[in-house]
Amino acid sequence: MKSVGKPLVRIDGRAKVTGEARYSYEVQVPGAAYAVLVTSGVARGRLVEIDTSAAEREPGVLAIITPRNAIRLPGKLHGEPPDRVVQALQDDRILFSNQPVAVAVADTLERATHAALLVRVRAEAEPPSIRVQDALDRAFPHDIVAGGRKQEPDSAHGDAARGMREADARIEQAYEVPPETHSPMEPHATIALWNAPDRVTLYDSSQWVFAVRNKIANAFAIPKENVHVMTKFVGGAFGCKGSPWSHVIIAALAAKQVGRPVKLVLTRQQMFGMVGGRPQTVQAVALGAKKDGQLAALRHESTSATSRFDVFVEAAALQARHIYACPNIETKHRVVRLDIGTPTFMRAPGESSGSFALESAMDELAHALALDPLALRLKNYAEIDPSEGKPFSSKSLRQCYTEGARRFGWDKRPAKPRSQTREGLLLGMGMATASYPANFSPASAVARMLPDGSAQVESGTIDLGTGTYTVMAQVAADALGLPYEKVRFDLGDSEMPEAPISAGSMTAASVGSAVLLTCGALREKLVQLAVADPASPLHGARTEEVRVEEGRLAAQGRSDTYADVVRRAGEKPIEVRSKAAPGEERKKYTNLAFGAQFAEVLVDPDLGSVRVSRMVGVFAPGRVLNARTARSQLMGGMVWGIGMALLEHSVYDEKLGRIMSRDLADYHVPGNADVGVVEPYFIEEQDEHVNPAGVKGVGELGLCGAAAAIANAVFNATGRRIRTLPITPDKLL
Ligand code: MOS
Fold it and tell me: Do 44 and 155 lie in a common domain?
């Protein structure tokens, strides 16, 4: 009767495919006006003049709000990281292209869109700096905030310089990942509705309702309790909706200014630059090894782009601290300031871009030593964390390698590049290691047993489309001893118990643990009520001997039901609130999820086009809560790897500082025709240390190592080592 692990379909699936699910912008708010942003075409400079007269004359226009007439926000526009500094029409500085400089508000979306087009903006432009390479001399170290923790930008274990000197083979190369832009199907959207001068409700497409609540409370200097934020459905986010950006404040500001609820949605073009993206990274990797492949030195230095006014660090070198057994490991993170919008977390921030560099370098080292790339990884298998000397909470990477190699047919890979063809195309095989932190942050939940014997469980977390509604009901059902159908899990409301950002692959781990502990406590409370109640058939039984199945409490051949316990206790729902948080125990371990990626590519020798014909990924993610949704997550990550390796690139005009590839025709993500066979598999782990739910998270792991496996396969197919993503045909010709 267990629910956890079963491949149940998403509970919200029907609502989504029938259109019954209301995404943030679709919430019906009577009397709502529509806001459309006007954004800067200049990347650096100052607003000189904004002529709003033509726009203001149009029918239905309620206001054209610019820095000239916008209400002054009494509070702060930014808080602690991962909160971002935003622009909310408060001054005339232009800090990046596509920065909001005005907002048109009208009674219909069409009228607001038209009015926004009539706003004339004149700006004084200065030449922008857009490329990391042009600013390397101004690079500086900065703390990293990853997975809810602060980490040092640099690490040194042993002496990497000496290790390099003593090595028999050395690889020293630079790798580059271009700026990339999240492209969820649902763009960012906010509805703001002031219920009183100091009381506001927002429907926002967000990964964290509490961050939106705090941001609005800070900006408008009102109590947090007066801000109510709801996010019931999200059409993809991948990190860009983790921090509330300018448009959220602007929607609330506009609603206040026009005295009506306001709906604001970004256009696809407006998503490029204004709401984060993966920053460009330039990474230097140095590997030194003995003849037998034993690593003697590993150095990984990453420099990534940030904005003029805020800092986001792409933590590309973090994994190098933990992934291979090596006595001498050095890592560094640097950032450079450019005239761009602040970058942010983008699926597997750090690990995906960093694994491209490190795992490409490992492939280069294997080739230099004439070793099999998988054998090289096994030779350097880390039994304990090489930097911190700690054991892993669990690690099944060896099984991932073995199982992946078997399923993929790794033994058929020719060591010599360019030695296999299929139907006139060059065929290549590559592999890479995947690793991603098993993050766990404090989370809370409430669970209620209702008089009908069904349970209602809530936590203010988010379902990004990943299956949170479903898996939390599964966890709750098992913890309570109820059938899955008897549990209703609800989320996405800032008035519910607090949950962490739905990012860093930590929702299942954190909220899952909170739900597990809270429902366990509710079960305990109900059992105690039963055994203490003279009217219960279980009266006098010991709580430890009571078993609960299908809502029936049984001991010594006697039984009671949840429904009867609640009814006898006065017909009111019986409620428990509790939380889960990392403790001291967890700190004794390095908590990582691992996997092995294998890719087969076909490269056209004349056209330079690459097709990923097959991918096999085997992942060890702790406990799998739902085999179907977890598999979907891993598959989505692997498919994203195809995009990262071959397609994704926010192309800047380097003179103007504008992103030129700012729609889905120019910014390419894999479509069905780009995707061959993608096969994710699990090695399930019992991990008692990582968190109460035993979950490591699957949202990002599938992308880690995927681009490197593809790039390594391209090398095997062609003999060409491409160190700058994406691997477009021009680079192979
Ligand atoms: Mo994810 S990039 O941590 O939302």
Answer: no
Question: For the residues 182-186, what does the mean pLDDT come to?
Answer: 97
pTM of the model: 0.98
What's the CA-to-centroid distance between 412 and ligand 1, angstroms? 36
The string of pLDDT tens digits covering residues 37-74 is: 999 999 999 999 999 999 999 999 999 999 999 999 99
pLDDT of residue 679: 98
Nearest to 429 by CA among 441, 439, 418: 418
Residues 601-620, mean pLDDT to the nearest whole number: 98
Q: CB of 331 within 8 A of CB of 35?
A: no
CB 598 within 8 A of CB 615: yes
Residue at 624: amino acid letter: V
For residue 344, which atom of ligand 1 is closest to its CA?
A: 2
Q: Which is the closest atom of ligand 1 to the Cα of 239?
A: 4
| Domain, as residue range, for 639 | 136-180+277-439+588-732
Distance between Cα 240 and ligand 1 center (Å): 8
Residues 222, 671: Cα–Cα separation, whole Å: 45
Say if residue 286 is in the same domain as residue 266.
Answer: no
Ligand 1 centre from 278 Cα, in Å?
11
Whether residue 501 has its Cβ less than 6 Å from ligand 1:
no
Whether residue 145 is predicted with pLDDT greater than 90 in this model: the reply is: no
Q: Which two tokens stand for residue 536?
A: 């219960």
State residue 81's pLDDT score.
76
